[in-house]
């Protein structure tokens, strides 16, 4: 094979160009073109939820919850806040749900929403003093906070100390768990994407791209950042609260580095800044790490290697790659020389 | 009692500085994220142990071999992995962290856990300071820590390569315009970091046992020192390791070892909240907040 001369040219498909501009959908073909990427994953999820054996249904629940956590991470990124400690949101939500149930015996359908809202609020207040920090400095604070909270719980023995709180009410059956987790996942996916599409989302993305110009156009960037933090924190806490009731236990591991790393890896594998990417990444990574469980301790080794190969091989992420392939066609064109 | 705590605090601080040296050179001064640093540290420890116990080399040959090996690993890491994702900081962090994860967990899988995994000390015996005794290994930590820090300080100020390291961190494009090959310097920075990390490992590890979990702790400690001291500042690094090391020693004496890590983390939080670019960091002062 000789080297091909020329360059690759990428063109938007005609339907894509029309549907972006004026929404004049005149044929089934165009309707399907727009609906396919939204409906097909829904159908696949639906079939999986019905058809899988019990063990893999559990994995599906976990994937959905980690998907929510990963999306909340990505939403923060869209507002220019790169967090290295999503475990903070997860852990606060998990401990809130556990404590509310432990102290007052509230049922799960009440603790989960309360823990989500309260968790979002608490995380926003915790991080409010450092909201002015940019880039890597904000990331470092978020990396350190969950590590510190876990040490404080260990040293002061509050909230059950190293033992954690066990005997927390579980869900009545797997069906409820599945419907709730997938429902929350889809609501988060389409909700976040909707928010980012509105003017409000544009302001957030403007803060990410150039915070100073947003401020100079008379918008209170800090207030918007705090709101984005609250929106992301609520869903992160929701993921934690849900897991508490699914495992019927909450302990120090909820602040572990795993819950900070997984959303980031999911986002890198799936593609950052698109909300759908991290969701896709979570649905690939969680089942993968379950499938590797048979390898025992080698599991994490393979996980690490897989991650590196993925980042080096496809740095833009799977979702961006697929979207490009869907919306554009490529051809070789001659280059005048 | 107080003098003992102070003396061991000093040793603790110098070992912190020693651990942070290589990380500071790659991440702090050259701006290349190497989050597999802790794994390299542990790798150097186990590697030296294997060269000594399995191959039967004397300590004097095993150590240089391992230092060179780890430097080459650092360079290889850049040439194979990092060069493809350069400039995307999050990807850099995740890729190197993934490699570190793979190395560390591979050692766990091979079953390198237990008390037999220790490195021999350089020399037996101890010296007397006042009415306290300090063993020679801790003395060599002090000597090597002091020596390497001085070397680093001169290296980054008075040699062409050292100044090129700082150049690509301050402004890569300008550095390119001045004829600094950023890929070559980055490769060098990674291999220097690896070598320094291996040196720190063979000096500090004989005091305790080698363990896989140390890899994660070392990374966190190095990160803490770099952040508190300020990225890009060698003097800041020294001050930060003394602040953190002394604080650790004093808290572990008066409050218990549970609180030791909390002090570390609290120091990072306070510094980040008040002056994010660190005690002496000047480099990014304008970019730290809006």
Structural description of this entry:
The complex is a heterodimer of chains A (337) and B (290). Chain A has 337 residues and is mostly helical. Helix content of chain A is 72%, strand content 5%. Chain A has helices at residues 14-21, 28-51, 54-78, 87-104, 108-127, 135-156, 174-197, 199-209, 211-216, 221-247, 257-270, 276-291, 298-313, 318-327, and strands at residues 7-12, 165-166, 249-250, 328-333. In chain A, the strands form two sheets. A two-stranded antiparallel sheet of chain A has the order 1-4. In chain A, helix 3 runs antiparallel to helix 12, helix 7 (174-197) packs across helix 8 (199-209) and helix 11 (257-270) crosses helix 12. Chain A is globular. The mean pLDDT of chain A is 85. By secondary structure, chain B is mainly α. Chain B has helices at residues 2-29, 37-55, 59-80, 89-110, 136-158, 160-170, 172-177, 182-204, 214-229, 234-254, 258-274; strands spanning 126-129, 132-135. Chain B has a two-stranded antiparallel ribbon with strand order 1-2. In chain B, strand 1 and strand 2 form a beta hairpin. In chain B, helix 1 (2-29) packs parallel to helix 5 (136-158) and helix 3 runs antiparallel to helix 8. Classes of the chains: A mainly alpha (337), B mainly alpha (290).
């Amino acid at each position: 094979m000789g080297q091909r001369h020329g360059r690759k040219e990428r063109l938007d498909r005609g339907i894509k160009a029309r549907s972006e501009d004026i929404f004049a959908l005149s044929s089934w073909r165009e309707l399907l073109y727009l609906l396919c990427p939204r409906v097909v994953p829904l159908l696949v999820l639906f079939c999986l939820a019905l058809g899988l054996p019990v063990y893999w249904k559990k994995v599906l629940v976990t994937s959905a919850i980690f998907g929510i956590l990963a999306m909340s991470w990505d939403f923060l990124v869209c507002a220019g806040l790169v967090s290295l400690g999503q475990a903070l949101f997860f852990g606060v939500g998990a401990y809130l749900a556990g404590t509310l149930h432990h102290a007052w015996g509230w049922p799960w359908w009440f603790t989960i929403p309360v823990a989500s809202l309260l968790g979002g609020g608490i995380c926003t207040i915790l991080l409010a003093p450092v909201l002015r920090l940019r880039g890597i400095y904000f990331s470092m604070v978020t990396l350190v906070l969950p590590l510190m909270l876990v040490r404080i719980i260990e040293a002061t023995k509050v909230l059950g100390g190293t033992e954690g709180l066990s005997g927390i009410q579980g869900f009545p059956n797997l069906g409820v768990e599945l419907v709730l987790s997938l429902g929350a996942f889809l609501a988060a996916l389409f909700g976040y994407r909707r928010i980012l599409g509105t003017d409000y989302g544009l302001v957030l993305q403007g803060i990410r791209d150039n915070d100073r110009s947003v401020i100079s156009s008379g918008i209170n960037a800090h207030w918007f950042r705090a709101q984005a933090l609250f929106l992301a924190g609520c869903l992160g806490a929701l993921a934690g609260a849900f897991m508490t009731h699914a495992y019927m236990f909450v302990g120090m591991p909820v602040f572990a580095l795993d819950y900070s790393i997984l959303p980031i890896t999911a986002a890198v594998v799936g593609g950052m800044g698109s909300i759908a990417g991290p969701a896709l990444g979570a649905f690939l990574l969680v089942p993968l790490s379950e499938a590797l469980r048979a390898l025992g301790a080698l599991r994490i080794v393979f996980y690490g290697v897989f991650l590196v190969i993925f980042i080096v091989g496809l740095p833009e992420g799977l979702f961006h790659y697929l979207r490009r392939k869907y919306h554009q066609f490529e051809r070789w064109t001659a280059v005048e020389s | 009692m107080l003098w003992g705590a102070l003396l061991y605090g000093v040793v603790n601080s110098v070992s912190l500085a020693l651990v942070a040296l290589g990380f500071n050179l790659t991440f702090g001064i050259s701006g290349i994220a190497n989050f597999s640093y802790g794994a390299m540290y542990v790798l150097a420890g186990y590697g030296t142990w294997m060269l000594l116990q399995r191959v039967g080399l004397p300590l004097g040959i095993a150590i240089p071999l391992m230092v060179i090996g780890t430097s080459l690993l650092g360079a290889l890491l850049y040439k194979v992995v990092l060069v493809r994702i350069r400039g995307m900081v999050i990807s850099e962090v995740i890729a190197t962290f993934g490699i570190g994860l793979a190395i560390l967990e591979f050692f766990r899988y091979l079953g390198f856990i237990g008390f037999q995994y220790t490195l021999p000390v350089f020399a037996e015996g101890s010296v007397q300071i006042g009415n306290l005794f300090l063993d020679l290994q801790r003395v060599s930590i002090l000597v090597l820590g002091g020596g390497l820090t001085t070397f680093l300080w001169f290296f980054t100020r008075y040699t062409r390569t050292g100044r090129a390291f700082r150049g690509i961190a301050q402004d890569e494009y300008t550095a390119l315009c001045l004829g600094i090959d950023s890929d070559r310097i980055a490769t060098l920075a990674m291999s220097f970091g690896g070598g320094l990390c291996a040196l720190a490992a063979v000096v500090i590890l004989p005091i305790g046992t080698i363990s896989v979990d140390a890899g994660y702790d070392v990374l966190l400690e190095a990160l803490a020192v770099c952040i508190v001291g300020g990225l890009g500042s060698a003097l800041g690094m020294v001050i930060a390791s003394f602040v953190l090391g002394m604080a650790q020693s004093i808290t572990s004496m008066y409050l218990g070892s549970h609180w030791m890590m909390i002090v570390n983390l609290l120091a990072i939080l306070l510094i980040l909240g008040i002056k994010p670019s660190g005690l002496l960091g000047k480099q990014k002062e304008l970019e730290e907040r809006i």
